[in-house]
From TrEMBL:
SUPFAM superfamilies: Ribonuclease H-like (SSF53098). This is Transposase InsO. Residues 868-891 are annotated as: Disordered. One of its GO terms (molecular function) is nucleic acid binding. PROSITE patterns: INTEGRASE. The keyword Amino-acid biosynthesis does not apply. Keywords: Coiled coil, Plasmid. One of its GO terms (biological process) is DNA integration. The keyword Coiled coil applies. InterPro entries: Integrase_cat-core, RNaseH-like_sf, RNaseH_sf, TnsA_C. The lineage of its organism: Bacteria, Bacillati, Cyanobacteriota, Cyanophyceae, Nostocales. Pfam families: Tn7_Tnp_TnsA_C.
Length: 909
């Protein structure tokens, strides 16, 4: 970001008016005017900008996020701000109506020599808006969109206003920028001089060497070194040409001049005779080559021809210019185009043929095969005419397609009169009634709509012979059934289950991410098993499981279990476990729209470690199908094999006391989490995954690290400082050190002896608090985090944030005055927590918090203590035998299982 002096100097260079400078300062000093929210079909999120030093919001990961990447890597861009303050536009529509309204552009961008607003929209949306508001959205001569009213408003300041569409995105470049993001973000990574010389000498010796060959033959050189040199532009690769993940297609050069020379040499291999012998047919869909780049003919007019580049850009040429370029050999047809078209056409014909069609064609081929070898056809035979027809069709197909077999392949299902028997006006009338009467929110029945249809036909004088039957009417309705019909009748949520489901194979979004830790999902589910307290044996209910899953390898990076419903605490803990196991965080994290994923603490932690956060569209669970399917796998492979699982609860009428999961539960949270980690990290990890082409998640993960770099320069040390950074802070994140009292955190004072320093008193310091222990907090003093003790440490020690919230709510209920709210003070809250009247209210939460300590033991690599209710009590032999006789077989098995003295524990980490 620009300093005040740099900003003033920049304003002087551009000779901006005082009014313009005030407008810019207003934008720079203002927070985003609104928080973006996702609709039913867009992915929102936050991008951690190094250029701006803060998180930038985006409303679509296919429009605004790619634009943010361009701004981030454009050296001409000095600053940019998301959701700048709104301003009012006024203009007159074509109908003569005067309109006035406020708009909030997506970005305010400061360039070296210009400044202004940018609005990002999808191309198809702009086309729709142009039809609706023809004077607000205008497509210019060079396929550049304009907004005349907004441009007129910007001109008063000397600014620009630009409409930017996704048609301008080079998706290959965007994908490569994402791939290299870890190398752009690190300033500490260095390539040794010897390694740099080795890599550059290999490229100099073989200009145009593919990235795959360099990675394969560069012994002693890590993939991280190569990718770092590419990101640092010490190795030249055209990032707009091919994705780096497709290493066999990426050509490497020492600099751009070598690439230009290399391309010129390759193109010069064609001779003049060869060029002129290649005629180019002006047919839409044909691919031609111009300077080595592919162009597709999209439209042929009377005087002009339109061509489209691989980046979806439109090029317009006159027919005379196109012919001249063909004669000069600058435009040639693709040598593989004709073959590809023929092969595609052949495959289409084969797909349309039924099994009887193929059997009949094979019979005809066997009959004509002798005559294809040159034998004469016998005359005066019953099959003579048929043989001659088949031979002629065979030879015609051989010339047309290259495959004579297609000439004798007949499609029986296309024979006969397949035209509709009903008149077209009757069919149109049926469609009208289905659309206007059946496909509505009233959800009328089929019979009711058909009755209205028949009544209308009689009233309009249509002959009874032409009125279709109810069966025909139903068939027409079924032809239109599916997503669109359900959407019109039952709404978006009901129609979602019928929405076509497909993995995105386009370059706009890689299917599973491009490398390990590229795209990861976080989601929660309630475990299908009832658990008991390890101290009292009381049934505490079902725990919540949180998973962090790598989309590239389907590997479970971290798993966390807690009795508390999903909250920012679960999110922070699963990220803490990920760093403990792998020493890093994902590049992009995808979540749903639950409130815990909008937590300030969660967003701050991701911004601190430069992780992009994406929120999937509301009510679109398939966007997180990686996690959703894994939850099902966890149930079938793990939870359903344990005593106390809740499968039977899905059949409530069949559940009796003997099979009630609450009566059969034996597992505690600590032991369940221990074995859940064992299953997730050691068993599921090595099983072949059906979505990974027969490989296990661990194999795909390891291969991805080897090919796409370990990226160790992005490692995060799992130490006390990181653990404190994963703790929440206050709304202001800072607190003032008050002499003799300390810092105030969540309405409670915390003290440390470091606060006695006169230089520390009355200063503001960063603070954090432990949600699982309200007795302590942390303050960042003189470059280090120090532990602070609560003024009522004995009362708050070991009590969780959740328990205190429950107690606060209960205390307010007891002390509340209906006229005004009651303010809870720390001393009153502490005394209330220590009183007997609250014991029963908080008992269950306190037991659950105690069980959470066993989970923390497992996270740190320890084994939970033996559950007392599973130990053999000191009773006489007769009582012990009665107890064994009354136990079910499954209970005895699980008692054996949870006994650490009789079980071999495998190392988890």
């Amino acid at each position: 970001m620009l300093s005040d002096d740099e900003f003033n100097q920049w304003c002087c260079c551009l000779k901006l008016s005082e009014k313009a400078q005030q407008e810019i300062q207003h934008v720079r000093s203002s927070a985003p005017s609104r928080r973006v929210r996702g609709a039913h079909n867009n992915v929102t999120g936050r991008y951690p900008s190094r250029k701006m030093g803060l998180s930038i919001q985006f409303e679509s990961h296919k429009v605004e996020l790619p634009f943010i990447y361009q701004l981030e890597h454009d050296k001409d861009v000095l600053e940019y701000y998301d959701q700048p303050p709104s301003f009012k536009l006024s203009y007159q529509e074509a109908s003569g109506r005067n309109l006035g309204f406020y708009i909030t552009p997506d970005f305010f961008v400061i360039h070296t020599n210009s400044v202004g607003w940018v609005e990002c929209k999808p191309e198809d949306k702009l086309n729709q808006l142009a039809k609706k508001s023809s004077r607000r959205y205008v497509l210019g001569d060079e396929n550049q969109w304009h907004s005349p009213p907004a441009e007129q408003y910007a001109q008063q300041f000397g600014f620009f206003f630009r409409l930017w569409s996704n048609a301008e995105i080079n998706w290959t470049l965007h994908r490569n920028l994402e791939f290299l993001a870890d190398y752009y973000k690190s300033n500490a990574f260095e390539v040794t001089k010897a390694t740099r010389n080795t890599i550059l000498s290999m490229i100099s010796a073989q200009p145009g060497i593919t990235l795959a060959n360099l990675l394969h033959h560069s012994e002693g050189v890590s993939t991280d070194d190569i990718y770092h040199l590419i990101a640092n532009e010490e190795i030249y690769v055209n990032l707009t040409a091919s994705p780096l993940v497709e290493a066999e297609k990426c050509l490497l050069f020492v600099d751009q001049l070598y690439e230009e020379t290399y391309n010129a040499i390759i193109l010069s291999q064609s001779t003049t005779n060869t060029i002129h012998s290649l005629g180019v047919e002006l047919i839409p869909g044909i691919t031609v080559l111009y300077s080595g780049k592919s162009l597709t003919i999209t439209l042929v007019g009377e005087t002009e021809v339109l061509l489209q580049t691989s980046e979806q850009q439109i090029v317009t040429l006159t027919l005379s210019t196109f012919d001249e370029l063909v004669k000069q050999g600058k435009i040639t047809k693709s040598t593989t185009q004709k073959t590809d078209e023929i092969n595609n056409q052949v495959m289409d014909l084969f797909k349309k043929a039924s099994f009887p069609d193929l059997m009949a064609a094979n019979r005809r081929y066997r009959l004509i095969q002798p005559y294809l070898d040159g034998q004469p056809i016998k005359t005066n035979t019953p099959q003579e005419r048929s043989l001659r027809i088949w031979l002629r069709a065979y030879r015609q197909a051989q010339q047309k397609y290259g495959y004579g077999y297609l000439g004798i392949l007949h499609f029986e299902n296309k024979k006969g009169n397949r035209n509709r028997k009903l008149p077209q006006h009757i069919l149109n009338l049926i469609d009208k009634f289905i659309i206007e009467r059946y496909e509505t929110k009233k959800q009328k029945g089929k019979q009711s709509v058909y009755n209205e249809f028949v009544h209308f036909c009689v009233e309009t004088g249509i002959s009874e012979l032409q009125v279709p039957s109810y069966k025909t009417f139903i068939k027409e309705i079924k032809k239109r059934s599916g997503y669109e019909q359900t959407l019109k009748r039952e709404g978006l949520r009901s129609a979602y289950r019928l929405e076509p489901f497909y993995w995105e194979l386009e370059v706009t979004t890689p299917r599973h991410g491009d490398f390990p830790f590229h795209i990861c999902h976080i989601d929660h589910t309630e475990s299908d098993i009832e658990l008991r307290c390890s101290k009292t044996g009381k049934v505490l209910g079902r725990a919540w499981i949180t998973l962090l899953v790598d989309a590239f390898s389907r590997r479970i990076l971290a798993v966390y279990a807690s009795y508390d419903p999903p909250s920012y605490r679960s999110c922070m803990m699963v990220l803490r476990i990920c760093v403990k196991r792998y020493g890093r965080l994902p590049q992009t994290i995808v979540t749903d729209n639950a409130k815990e994923f909008y937590s300030t603490y969660f967003e701050t932690l991701l911004a601190l470690f430069e992780c992009t956060l994406k929120h999937r569209p509301s009510s679109k669970s398939r966007f997180s199908s990686v996690c959703e399917r894994l939850f099902g796998t966890t149930n079938t492979q793990f939870f359903y094999n344990l005593a106390g699982n809740t499968q039977i609860t899905k059949k409530v009428r069949l559940m009796t006391k003997s099979v009630n999961p609450k009566n059969l539960s034996l597992w505690t949270l600590g032991w369940l989490y221990l074995y859940l980690c064992e299953w997730a990290y050691s068993i599921y990890d090595i099983i072949e995954h059906p979505g990974l082409e027969g490989q296990s998640p661990r194999e795909v993960f390891s291969a991805g690290i080897a090919q796409y770099g370990s990226r160790d320069h992005r490692r995060i040390s799992y130490d006390e400082n990181f653990r404190i950074l994963t703790l929440p802070t206050t709304n202001k994140s800072r607190a003032k050190v008050q002499p003799g009292k300390g810092v105030k955190v969540e309405q409670k004072y915390y003290w440390s002896n470091t606060f006695r320093d006169p230089e520390i008193e009355n200063t503001s310091v960063d603070v954090r608090y432990d949600p699982f222990n309200a007795g302590i907090a942390y303050a960042y003093v003189q470059g280090q985090w120090v532990e602070c003790i609560s003024e009522y440490y004995s009362l708050f020690r070991g009590r969780s944030e959740k328990e205190i919230q429950i107690a606060t709510t209960q205390l307010k209920k007891q002390k509340q005055n209906h006229a005004s709210s009651y303010r809870i003070r720390a001393k009153q809250l502490g005394e209330f927590l220590a009183s007997l009247e609250v014991e029963e209210i908080l008992l269950e939460q306190r037991l659950r918090d105690k069980q959470a300590q066993e989970v923390f033991q497992v996270i740190e690599g320890e084994i939970p203590l033996l559950s007392p209710y599973n130990q053999t009590p000191n009773v006489d032999e007769e009582k012990e035998q009665d107890k064994l006789n009354s136990s079910t077989e499954s209970e005895l098995e699980v008692n054996e299982l949870v006994n650490p003295q009789k079980l071999k524990i495998f190392k988890i980490y």
